[in-house]
């Protein structure tokens, strides 16, 4: 029986190709926007704490939507989910491309996010059931190469578009591509899935939305409102209580919306912890570096994107290599090496000055991306490999949810740290400048001095945020010492027809 089941599970490269192209364009869209944030801040007259919502708002919707994907993957076919995801993504892209109001822009981004939230877990799940465990590292490596091509070309392409056109062109550029992918999926993907009799527990959905949404909203608001604002700490408290209630409810349900039983498998629990911690550290470079090079150093958007290109290329090219190395050596050696590099390079980013050279920034970013490329996919795959097959939808949904939550918390936390440090440095530097001041400076000299002090305070804030980020990366490094090579665990409750049928049918789809 087991042999016959293995023979039926063969990779459907047509479905995989369409799903990967869809995931690629959603990844590309996200990386296009990072370089554009300073331009959007200037055009819409908003500050850093507000513009970060284009990133954290995207993650907020992902954090709310992704827990439902385990249910959606079991209930509906690949075709239906793909077409729904691409339609939502396309509508959000069109809305974002035709607005001059930040709330509407944010709404468009959130619609895009609702599509991406379905796309990534769906693709990951199809990958897991399509390849045997001994070939999964190489398969995930190729998957990573394709997806990492997006951040490789995204920043440079974004910089070129912003220099020659309005930032809205970033969305207009993506719209026709997304439309073509939607049409290709509509005509080529076939619906083979049998009806699976499972129902969504709406109480769980509400608790999950309030739980993940409250925590993410609270942390994301802290950068603008401060930690002592009731809107911040009350939403976090409500979110934590709702999340605890959600977890307790899942343990009682026969078919939970999101099965927390995946954490009974130690390597999965460890890999999730490492990925969460690294995600918090990783977003410092994605958010803080473009602000530093464009706002403080005056580097053009195109040159800023070009500066990040080697790092993205390294990450993309390393993906299939680390996949094969993972199949051969396991995840521990790769994780320890990659996290050591990541921690050191992140610390070096905390020493930025007005005179830090463009070449140094480019090289350091490339080495940092090299380190991260050795960690993310191997650690995640090692954890998923320990799960029984029926837990794959829950494992991928859990990983994606935690990655979004940790990324949003990390972004909000680091922006808050940067903002608070910038304000305190500004006050200190201003007081020192007044003490040293002799005579009555001209209005022009005073304005120039204030600008210089403002930039220096911002550098201090960015450096301190990178320093905290290096400390966070060091925590992931310590956790990596406990990694062991995973073997698929036996399923103690294997006779669960609904879930088992769902997984088998997904493999055939």
| Number of discrete helical segments | 19
Low-confidence blocks of residues: 1-9, 495-509
Q: Terminal Cα separation, in Å? A: 20 Å
- Radius of gyration from CA coordinates: 23 Å
Secondary-structure element sequence?
A: HHHHHHHHHHHHHHHHHHH
CATH class of the largest domain: Mainly Alpha
Task: Characterize the overall form.
Answer: globular
Into which percentage range does the β-strand content fall?
Answer: under 5%
What's the total count of β strands? 0
> Any idea what the CATH architecture of the largest domain is?
Up-down Bundle
Helix content percent band:
over 70%
In the residues, how many domains can be counted? 2
Mean pLDDT: 78
Give the biggest beta sheet.
none
Q: Might you state the CATH topology name of the largest domain?
A: Growth Hormone, Chain: A
Structural class computed from helices and strand pairing = mainly alpha
Specify the CATH homologous superfamily of the largest domain. Answer: MFS general substrate transporter like domains
């Amino acid at each position: 029986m087991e042999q016959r089941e293995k023979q039926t599970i063969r990779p459907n490269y047509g479905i995989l190709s369409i799903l990967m192209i869809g995931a690629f364009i959603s990844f590309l869209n996200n990386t296009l926007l990072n370089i554009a944030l300073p331009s959007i801040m200037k055009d819409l007259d908003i500050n850093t704490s507000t513009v970060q919502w284009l990133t954290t708002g995207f993650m907020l919707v992902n954090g709310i939507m992704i827990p439902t994907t385990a249910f959606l993957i079991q209930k509906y076919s690949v075709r239906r989910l793909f077409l729904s995801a691409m339609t939502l993504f396309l509508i959000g892209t069109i809305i974002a491309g035709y607005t001059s109001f930040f709330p509407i822009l944010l709404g468009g981004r959130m619609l895009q996010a609702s599509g991406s939230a379905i796309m990534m877990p769906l693709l990951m799940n199809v990958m897991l059931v399509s390849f045997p465990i001994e070939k999964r590292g190489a398969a995930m490596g190729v998957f990573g190469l394709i997806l990492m091509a997006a951040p490789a070309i995204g920043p440079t392409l974004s910089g070129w578009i912003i220099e020659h056109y309005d930032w809205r062109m970033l969305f207009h550029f993506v719209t026709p591509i997304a439309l073509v992918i939607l049409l290709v999926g509509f005509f080529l993907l076939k619906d083979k899935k049998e009806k699976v009799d499972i129902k969504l527990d709406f109480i769980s959905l509400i608790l999950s939305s309030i739980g993940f949404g409250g925590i993410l909203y609270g942390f994301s608001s802290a950068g603008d409102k401060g930690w002592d604002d009731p809107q911040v700490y009350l939403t976090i408290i409500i979110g934590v209580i709702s999340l605890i209630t959600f977890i307790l409810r899942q343990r009682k349900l026969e078919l939970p919306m999101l099965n927390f039983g995946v954490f009974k498998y130690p390597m999965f629990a460890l890999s999730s912890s490492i990925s969460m911690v690294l995600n918090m550290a990783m977003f410092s470079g994605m958010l803080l570096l473009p602000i530093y090079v464009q706002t403080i150093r005056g580097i053009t958007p195109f040159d800023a994107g070009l500066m990040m290109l080697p790092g993205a290329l390294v990450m993309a090219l390393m993906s299939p290599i680390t996949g094969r190395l993972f199949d051969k050596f396991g995840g521990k050696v790769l994780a320890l090496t990659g996290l050591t590099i990541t921690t050191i390079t992140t610390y070096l980013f905390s020493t930025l000055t007005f005179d830090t050279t463009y070449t140094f920034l480019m090289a350091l970013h490339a080495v940092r991306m090299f380190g991260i490329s050795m960690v993310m996919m191997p650690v995640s795959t090692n954890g998923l490999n320990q799960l029984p097959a029926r837990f794959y939808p829950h494992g991928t949904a859990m990983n994606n949810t935690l990655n979004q939550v940790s990324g949003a918390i990390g972004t909000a936390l680091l922006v808050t740290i940067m903002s608070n440090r910038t304000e305190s440095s500004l006050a200190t530097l201003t007081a020192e400048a007044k003490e040293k001041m002799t005579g009555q400076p001209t209005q022009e000299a005073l304005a120039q001095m204030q600008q210089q002090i403002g930039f220096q305070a911002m550098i201090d804030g960015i450096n301190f945020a990178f320093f905290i980020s290096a400390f966070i990366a060091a925590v992931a490094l310590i956790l990596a010492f406990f990694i062991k090579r995973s073997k698929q665990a036996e399923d103690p409750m294997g006779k669960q027809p609904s879930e088992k049928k769902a997984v088998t049918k997904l493999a055939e789809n």
